[in-house]
Design a protein that fits this description.
Elements lengths: L1 H16 L2 H14 L3 H8 L5 H11 L5 H12 L6 H16 L1 E8 L5 H14 L4 E8 L6 E6 L2 E6 H11 L1
Parallel strand pairs: 1-2
Antiparallel strand pairs: 1-3, 3-4
Length: 171
């Protein structure tokens, strides 16, 4: 996977220069501010000269660290700017692994009370005591009831919708 290779390269540079967290922030910031379809179209276009694309990057991202700017130039040189979000995702995976961080999405039909959140945190911290846990609480009314917990590609689905779906399959 090309994104993983680019992520590993920029991650190694970030480690060397002690800028891992800074580059994490850059990936997130660019990912959030980079939703303009015209900008994406220009940066991914094979018709527009790479020199012109680099000038655009220089103007738009002039406040970024020089190493990160050079990284952006490299992905433009290799026509990989359209892979930027994927590279950022892979970079964050490398950082999470290094820092032993586990992100957990807790999905419920209704907003959870602080008491329920604390109970979930307590149970999962006991299960993953060797990791730093970061929780994100998401409300999805179509779950009907119960919870769905997603982390590291694994899902624990304790929702009423999942139970109804299992019963439906059995019938």
């Amino acid at each position: 996977m090309v994104e993983a290779e680019y992520a590993k390269a920029i991650y190694e540079l970030a480690l060397e220069e002690k800028k891992v967290d800074l580059f994490w922030d850059y990936f997130i910031a660019i990912d959030k501010t980079d939703d303009d379809p015209e900008f994406r179209k220009i940066m991914s276009s094979p018709i527009i000269d790479t020199k012109e694309k680099k000038e655009i990057i220089k103007k738009v991202y002039y406040k970024l660290d020089e190493t990160f700017l050079n990284f952006l130039y490299v992905i433009v040189d290799h026509n990989r700017f359209d892979s930027f979000n994927g590279i950022g995702h892979e970079y964050r995976k490398l950082v999470r692994k290094e820092k032993n961080i586990m992100f957990i999405d807790v999905i419920s039909a209704n907003e959870l009370t602080e008491k329920h959140q604390a109970k979930i945190v307590k149970v999962l911290k006991a299960k993953y005591s060797d990791k730093t846990l970061q929780f994100k609480y998401i409300v999805k009314p179509d779950l009907i009831g119960g919870l769905q917990i997603i982390s590291n590609g694994e899902s624990i689905d304790m929702s009423l919708k999942a139970a109804l779906d299992r019963i439906k399959e059995e019938l």
